[in-house]
Amino acid sequence: MTQVEWRSIELPRVIDAKRNAFESIPSLISSLRLKGNILMLSSPTSHRLAGKKILDLLEDETSFNVHVLETRVATIEMVRIVKKYVEDHAVMTILAVGGGSITDVAKLASYYSKITFISIPTVLSHDGIASVKASIMSNGYKQSFTAQAPIAVIGDIDLLSQSPAKFTYSGAADLISNLSAIEDWKHASRLRGKDLNNYAIELSRISAESVINNVDILNHSILDRAGIVFRGLMSSSMAMAIAGSSVPASGSEHTISHGLDRALNYQNLHGEQCGLLTIFTMYLQQADWKMVKVILKKLELPTTLADLNIETDIFVEVTESAHLIRDRYTIIGSGIPKEAIIKALKKTGMI
Ligand SMILES: [Zn+2]
Fold first, then answer.
1. Domains, in order of start, for the chain
2. φ, ψ for residue 44 (rounded to 5)?
3. Cα-to-centroid distance, 186 and ligand 1 (Å)
4. d(Cα 180, Cα 188) in Å, to the nearest integer?
5. Ligand 1 centroid to 250 CA: how many Å?
6. Mean per-residue pLDDT of the chain
């Protein structure tokens, strides 16, 4: 008999996704009854696009003392700098205004400092916006650190729709990759007796289907594209929170992607790469990889190694040893032989 696992689930208290959501940030912060000083973390670009506007609103409509710190990089050194800044300036809330790097630094620095953070994404390139894990560069490559979920996520659909389409499509591809992660989870359950969480699985599947069932809308309305991908990334984050790990949204396709990132020095967008790898891993899983390929093509996302400038030799080398990258049982099992990798690449048209 499987033992019931009791543990807490950490979720954001507020998810505010609408047009001109920025304008309600002062009232949202009041409703959360936050105290102390605020630190806005942004990049030069995200500050110009959104941070400055939010700063003006907070200064005009609240009595909070708002500090601003700019960064571009998600490194462990930057996390330490932010933590020190928080302590020196009695900061009680971090506003993360920007992309994945800014969010990850805010997530980990606020966790280490035991304060809250609010996520205000300016791009939708992957599903880490509301997850509890932070991807931070340490000792030369990105590592996943346990951090905390934001207390609130603000999705200003007008701003998000203005971000480069490539990023939003990359986020859409990251959502499609959930299908491969779900297959891997079921595979691990069958062969290794891993517990399945059906609620997390359904939520993860819904996140992927929000893209798959709305391809035409995604391609024809930039506002709806931003709204659909934002909601999908939120529900994918929820699936991970409910599962208590990234398993519902990160299977063999993400494992190989981590290996490629290291081999290729992070040359590709995370979502684009995971979307492409989903064709490959779903072929191995004997799942409907053809459907995934059709959807990726319709969204003009990469479907071949050449689309992402990945040499076949490097792909084979990384994939052959991908089972050593992390301790998560997937379709890769204890390794795939070179011949099987080449065959899958040829059969799927990836080379
Ligand atoms: Zn991902």
1. 14-162 (3.40.50.1970), 165-347 (1.20.1090.10)
2. -55, -40
3. 18
4. 12
5. 6
6. 94
State the distance from the centre of ligand 1 to the C-alpha of 338, rounded, in angstroms.
Answer: 25
CA of 36 to the centre of ligand 1 (A): 34
The pLDDT assigned to 1 comes to: 45
CA dihedral (245, 142, 50, 149) in degrees, to 10, reads 20
Distance between CA atoms of 137 and 262, rounded to whole angstroms? Answer: 11
Cα(344) to centroid(ligand 1), Å: 22
Q: Is the pLDDT of residue 146 over 80?
A: yes
| Residue 132 CA, ligand 1 centroid: distance in Å | 13
Model-wide pTM > 0.90: yes
Cα of 233 from ligand 1 centre, angstroms: 10
pLDDT at 3: 52
Listed residue (29, 18, 159) closest to 99, CA to CA:
159
